[in-house]
Each structure stands twice: as C-alpha cells, then as structure tokens.
User: What shape does this take?
Amino acid sequence: MKTQNLSDISIQYLKGVGPQRKKVFERLGVETIEDLLYFFPRHYEDRRQMTPLAKLKVGEWQTVTGKIANHSGRRSWYTKKHVYEVEVGDATSRVFCVWFNRPYLDRYFKAGQQIVVYGKVDIYKDRFQIVSPDYEIIADDEEDRALSVDRIVPVYPMTRGMTQRSLRKAVKQCLEKYASSLQDILPYDIRTKYALHNLVKSLWSIHFPDKPEDQAVAYRRVSFEEFFLFQISVLLRRQSIVTKDGIAHAISDEFCRDFERLFSFVLTQSQKDVIREVAKDLKSNSPMHRLLQGDVGCGKTVVAFFGCLASVRNGYQAAIMAPTEILARQHYENLVKTIAGSPFRDIRPCLLISDLDVKSRAQALAAIQEGAIDIVVGTHALIQDAVNFRSLSFVVIDEQHKFGVRQRALLSAKGKNPDVLVMTATPIPRTLCLTLYGDLDVSTISEIPPGRGSLCTTLFAQQDAGKAYEIVRQAVARGEQTYIVYPIIDESEDLDLKSAQEMYKTLQKGELKGFRLGLLHGQMKKQQTQDVMRQFLNKELDVLVATTVLEVGVDVPNATVMVVEHADRFGLAQLHQLRGRIGRGALDAQCVLVADLATPQAQARLEVLLSTRDGFQIAQQDLLIRGPGEFFGRHQHGLNELRIANPQTQLDILEEARQEAIGILAKDPKLSDVNHAIIQKTILKRYPSYLGNILSG
Ligand code: ADP
Ligand code: MG
Assistant: This one.
C-alpha cells in the first residue's frame, strides 16, 4: 500500500468537519490530519472514579459529576456583579457552581443534563460551592459517554466555537482511520535501544491513555523524536555555518578609539572583553554565531552598536531586531543620540515597525533595498518577505529568548552569511546552553557598570499596599519617576486581582491624586503606547501604571521606584527582569513587592529577591523552588519549534537524542541513505527555510 502523507490531507476529510468547522480548527493551528494527531491534550482529568458529592473535600481541586437540578442568574445587591449559579446533584449531595459577570452562560445549561465540573471546592453559606469551574456537558449518546466519562479524559487547548467533546471525537476518528499509515521516523534500532514504543501506539496513549503511566511512556517517545529531529537540525546548522564563507570585516584601531569615545561612560572590562571577542569574529571570514548573555543593565546594547557601526564602516548594512515596539524604538532613539555629533554622524539609521503608514513603509523598504539606510532597528517587521537589504553583514537579535530559532534564521537569511549576535538577559545553565544552542558560541558580560545607585527591595503584605504608595509619593516629591506593575490588564471575571486599568483609575482618584499618571499595557494602540513612553521619558509623567510589557529592555534612568502588586503571581526570573527597569542611573532605587503571603513558601520564594541582585543566582533559586518544569515556561526557553518536548524536564532524553543525532550524521551527513529518507523529508518540512540548501546542496 502506498503510504499516505498525512500532512497533505486536509482536516475536512474527517466526518463532521465542513468549511465552517475547518476554520475553527485552523484557529487552533490544526489544518491537516497530521496536525490533529499531534494536537496534544493540555492536561488530563482522571474521571475513572469520581468523588460522590457528599465526600467533597473543601479547599481541594476536584472533578465531580452530577445532573443539573437548577440554573439561574441574578445581580448581587452587594457587589453589583451578575451571579450565575448552576446546582448540580448526585445521589449523595449537591454542589453549586458559580460564575460572576457571565450572564450569557444561561444558554448552555438545561435541567437534567449530565455535567462534569472541575474546580476548587469551597464552603459558602453552608453549602459546597465551586467558583468558575471548568465544565463539560455530557451528551446523551453512547460514543460521547465512552470518551468523556469513566476514564482518563484528555483536555485540549480550546478556542471559540470548539468543544472538548467534538475535539475528542475528531481525534478518535483520526486515530482510527489514519494513524496506522503514519511512518515511524525513529529508526528501529534506536527505538529498541531506548525501549521506546512505536508511534501509533504512543499517539493512542497520549490522546486516550488507559493508565497515567501509559501517557508518560508515550510522551517520552514523542519527545525523543522531537529532540532527535531538533538536534539533527542544530547540528546541520552548525556544520553549515562553520563551513560557509562569511564576510571579513576590517576593524582599525582608530575605529575602536572613535567608538569608545561615543559614550559618556567608560566601558567595563567585561564589555571590552566581549567586544574583543566580537571583533575577532567580525574580522574572520567564517560567519559569527554568538550568544551574548548578561544580566539586566550590564550594558549589552553597547556591544550591539559596536558590531553595527563596524559593519557600516565596511560598507555594509546592519540590523537590530527587538521583541517589542517600545524596545525597538528605544534602541533606535539611543542609536540616533549616540552617533549625533560624532565621527559616525553620517550613518543613517531607520526604525522599521509594523504600524508605519503605507507611504513611510514603502519609502523605508526602498531605502533599505537601495542601501540608503545603514542600520535598521525594528521588531518582527524586519523578517517580513518585503524587507530586502542591499548588503547586510551584521545582525543583532535582542532578548532572543522571545524569538524562535526560525525567526533568527529568517533575519540572517536577508544577508549573505552575515555575522549574527543574539543577546539575552535570561541566564541559561551551561549544559543546557550547549545542547540547546549547540550552534552558538557564548560570551558573557559578568559585571554591572559602576556608579549605579543602590537598589533595595522590600516586601509588603497585600493589605499594606498603602505603604507602597507612600514610597511612590516620596520619590515623586524628589523629582524621580516610578512604576507600578500589575499582573493583569483589566478586571477579569475569574480572578480576584487588581488590574492595571482599574488601579490606574483608582489611584488617580485616591492615593495618587494630583500626580501625573500614565497607563501602559499590551493591548493599547501602538500610537498610545509610544505617546505614553515618550511622555514618561520626557518626565511629563510621574507614575507609569503598567503590566509586564515593561519586562524587557525599557531604560529610563530617572525611574527609581517600582511597586509590583500581586508579586506572588510572577516568576522570580520575571520579577528580576522587571526590577531591572530601576536602579539604572546614579540614583538610589527601591523595589517594593506587594504580595499575598498566605504561605511560608510564597514568602520564602519572594525573599530570594530581597537577598540578591544576581540574576544567575535568582534563576537557580527559582529552579530549586519551582522545579525545572515551570522555570523557563514554554515560551521562555526560546525554542518555539519544540511543541511537545521540554528541555528543562527532559534533559536526559535530550542528551540521548543528541547522541543519536550525532551518530546518524557521522555516518550519513546529508541523510541521503534510503533508510534516512523519512528523517530527511521531515526535517526539510519542519525547518525548511534554513535547512533546505544544506541537505540538497
Ligand atoms: P542591557 O544589558 O540590560 O540591555 P543596556 O545596554 O540597556 O543594558 O544598558 C543599561 C544602561 O547602562 C544604559 O543606560 C546604558 O547607557 C548604561 N551603560 C552601559 N554601559 C555602561 C558603562 N560601561 N558604564 C556606565 N553606564 C553604562
Ligand atoms: Mg537590553
């Protein structure tokens, strides 16, 4: 039988998936049968044995089931919120499910339906209550029951218009009809060596495990496969970089002298050392691929500028890509200011972001293509197809953990083997670094520039937030500026947290009346964001109320106080990044964490921040306290290509896969052996933009 290519078969071939449903699937990133087979549950619910309602344990997260007895909505006279309530009963007792401000829920429930709910059980007015539970209505048909109750049930990521129920059905259909024609990528000998199950069996266990152990074994197998392919791609890339012809830049002593004079400060020894490493790479004929690590505020931007100016002085163009518009704009303005009136004043920089109007964008693109622009600073807008450089020789990717390998590669591909510098403030343990970024050399800036004021961090309980505002008022009275950070943008129905928007108004009317407040969050219009940032920079605002959009890069030396409310909601590494926004100038700075200190653990965790300012140490502590799984988060490790495997928790698998990848490439560097055809094909499909020429060439 000819094997079908499941990545070519549209999801529409499934029963019950028409054009409408197809669109909903696309929102989940599922377009083909293969996508769906690899669309894995977010978590599982063990519904093999449900707790009878009479045996519910208060304070615990539980899954329960029962029939809907009543459902109704009303407005609370006390909080003015809309309260929607569903009473669920079984033979033993009943529980009340409650939602706030969601009157539309009414249309989903009917008395008599069976429902499964998951949430934290409380007691309210002498009855069991679950606030905002996850819920699922079980249809009255055999198939649905078979997939949704009395078993371990997969819970998938969701989108509007989709239900767990229909996803489960689609996945099951897919497994039954197509899974057997999947070709196993992992060679048989590797599978035996590491006792990995075959692919089809693994996929069944991931979607519909019979026991929790099955699911774990299956994940091991698919993670191995993903790491294996990923490591092959890293190794191939490394191979191709070392062997490619790059651009040899000339760097004169005079250039270096002029460069150092650009700044009002003396470069730190660390900065000088790293610049020397970068200069060496720039001069060499093989392309640079270097990771620059260094704690917040250590002055990485200077190194980036060095490379850019060197590139331009050799007649080429340079580009700096940053993850947010605020940051891109800041780099751009910093660059303009730095070269003004210097021997580099002839250099023409431009800012390329996504919200330029049509005309300015066209002009910028033309100028970049003609070479009328020397240095382009921008966001993701830089990697769009329409952006063409005349001769790009140096590329910087700032806060690189916010980007993926692919995006890095797309930017480099705009030049002919340019030198690439990627920068990050997230310290990465060395072993992990080697495996993950095996294609990069590593430089580290280890000192913070002298002359910084002190930074002290204090911790207040939530009810003492008033003291924090007093510290803000005092700072403003001294002519300094302040940040107040919240974990969420607006009042959310599910969380009882202060939000940036709401507190912006509340503080303006109360605690910070008469002060000049600004608001900054990720959902504001671009223009508004810029206006607010500009006002803050120009000292037209005293207090910036914000969300974590502040997290990366923002540099306003006059800002000396940062209050973070609900600090327990943030990761330590993230708080450290946030705190890096203050204490950047000569003035003494103070960071005030306001947090719910309900447990000793919560307190101990935050106290790490009080005792040290060293990002590496904080990261290590975070790792110890939270366990590796949550440390980087999916996005943080910067490997957006990895969909399933997690390098933090599965380092052992990663290392095994790496060994096997090395083994295979040693025997068959271009994967041209027929037995490796499927590996080659998959790699080309998964990493096409930057590996195609390596394997075919
Ligand atoms: P990061 O490494 O976090 O990106 P930046 O490059 O934004 O840090 O630098 C932080 C601040 O320190 C900037 O205001 C910058 O001008 C300043 N700075 C950089 N190097 C030095 C130095 N050697 N001495 C004093 N200040 C410096
Ligand atoms: Mg920076």
The domain at 49-150 is CATH 2.40.50.140 (OB fold (Dihydrolipoamide Acetyltransferase, E2P)). The radius of gyration is 28 Å. Residues 563 and 593 are 6 Å apart (CA to CA).
